[in-house]
Every structure is written in C-alpha cells, then in structure tokens.
Write a structure and sequence with these properties.
With 98 residues, the chain is α+β, with helices and mostly antiparallel strands. 21% of the residues lie in helices and 54% in strands.
Length: 98
C-alpha cells in the first residue's frame, strides 16, 4: 500500500511540474480510441482529439510507454498545447480502467 501512495505522490508532483513548466491544458477521461499519431478521449464536455508527436512523453501504468500500449477503455490524463487549432499532447499518463 505504501508504494501506491508513493506512486500517487510522484504523479501529483509530475503533473504539477508539467503543468507549470509546459503551460499546457490538462484533460482527463476515458480513451475512446487510438490511431496513427492520435488519441481520442471522452471528457466531461464531449470528445477531444489529441495529436501525438515523437516528442510526446507517454507513461502507462507508471512506466515509459508508446502510443500502441494504450487502448480504448483505458483512462488517461493528457497535458496538451493548442497549436494551429489542434491539441498537441506533450504528456500522456494512462492506466487500465479499474
């Protein structure tokens, strides 16, 4: 149980740092789908598409990952920047839905 709390604190610290340093928008929701360089989330006010670039940091279940490790039904928190009318993800933190 202590490791779970430690991981939660680490994620909170990472999000605080990422949100402040990256200055991005933060969205959390259920993954609806993953495509080539895109991630679709169901968020509180609808669906949101995020562009995934080679520089996007992706973490799944607390470990470095790639986009293909994420699937529909997972939960994700995305920090993204609005560029040319598209949300470009800078950080994706995903986990299995439970």
């Amino acid at each position: 149980m202590a490791s779970v709390h430690k991981n939660i604190l680490l994620v909170v610290a990472l999000l605080t740092w990422a949100g402040g340093v990256l200055g991005g928008e933060e969205c959390e929701g259920e993954v609806l789908g993953v495509g080539e360089n895109v991630l679709m989330l169901m968020i509180h006010d609808g669906q949101q598409l995020f562009v995934i670039e080679p520089t996007t940091t992706i973490v799944f279940e607390g470990k470095p990952a790639q986009l293909h490790d994420i699937a529909a039904g997972h939960r994700a928190l995305v920090i993204a920047e609005l560029r040319n009318d598209q949300y470009v993800a800078t950080l994706v933190l995903a986990r299995s839905a439970y």
